[in-house]
Amino acid sequence: MLLSVADFIGVSKASASRIVHHVSRAIADLYPQYVKILSNTQNAFREIAGFPRILGAIDCTHVPIQSPDSNIGEEFRNRKGIFSMNVQGVCNADLLFMNVVARWPGSAHDATIFNNSTPTMQCEEGLFGNRWLIGDSAYPCTSYLLTPLLNPTSVAENRYNEAHIKTRNTIERCFGVWKRRFPILSLKIRVAMQTTQAIIIATSVLHNTCRLNNIRDVDPEVAMPQESGDITYAEGIGQKNHSVRQQLINNYFSV
């Protein structure tokens, strides 16, 4: 990447590296202005599949990187043996990022990232009232994060799971649009770690500005490397609020 930039603007690779870092950092500094939790998300989410009171959809995605030149490099090797950053994203129904965390190595579990992130702290402090995040089974089921049932047994539970899948799919679509617009996020980032993190955050800012200004998404037919759907389940991690999920199923999906 740096050689291409250097050749394009006629500077040395070292100069290109500094330019990429400074520009990425400058854009990333706009994160608080363009990537933030929005209050008016419930209606749009409910229109998808009837799921009420949803604040945002959450998931993680791996961004390939070069092997870190440090004694902790192996921490960045993910389950597939690829060096990566495990990046958390929360989005609304319009595929706008509301939170992005880009500081964890590829070996980190999705639930670990979530438990140490700002959205968890904000939810635990009750800042979003009775609204929920929605995530897959890599996350614990809590009073503020709803996960699917692994073994649904009733009509209502199956309805819940079907609505959950359709609603949670927004974050998968958001990641897809983001990575198609910025192919470097799928192909491999080959710069220093600080610049890598700045690039990830900067592209999330640019993604939101494109969506807000109705800039056409990259052609969805463009082939991009796809992640496996394998999930490391978190059923044993803090599954302490099944009652909240069951009450939701009884109130909204049993009719």
TrEMBL record:
Which Gene Ontology terms cover its molecular function?
hydrolase activity; metal ion binding; nuclease activity
Keyword check for Cell wall biogenesis/degradation: no
Cofactor(s) annotated in UniProt: a divalent metal cation
One Pfam match, given by its short name, reads: DDE_Tnp_4
Q: What is its main location?
A: nucleus
Tell me yes or no: is Nucleus among this UniProt entry's keywords. Answer: yes
InterPro entries reported for this sequence: HARBI1-like, HARBI1_dom
Where does it reside? Answer: Nucleus
DDE Tnp4 domain mapped to chain residues = 58-208
Q: What are the record's GO terms for cellular component? A: nucleus
Sorted UniProt keywords: Hydrolase, Metal-binding, Nuclease, Nucleus
Q: Which family does it belong to?
A: Belongs to the HARBI1 family.
The molecule here is called DDE Tnp4 domain-containing protein
Q: Which organism is it from?
A: Parnassius mnemosyne (clouded apollo)
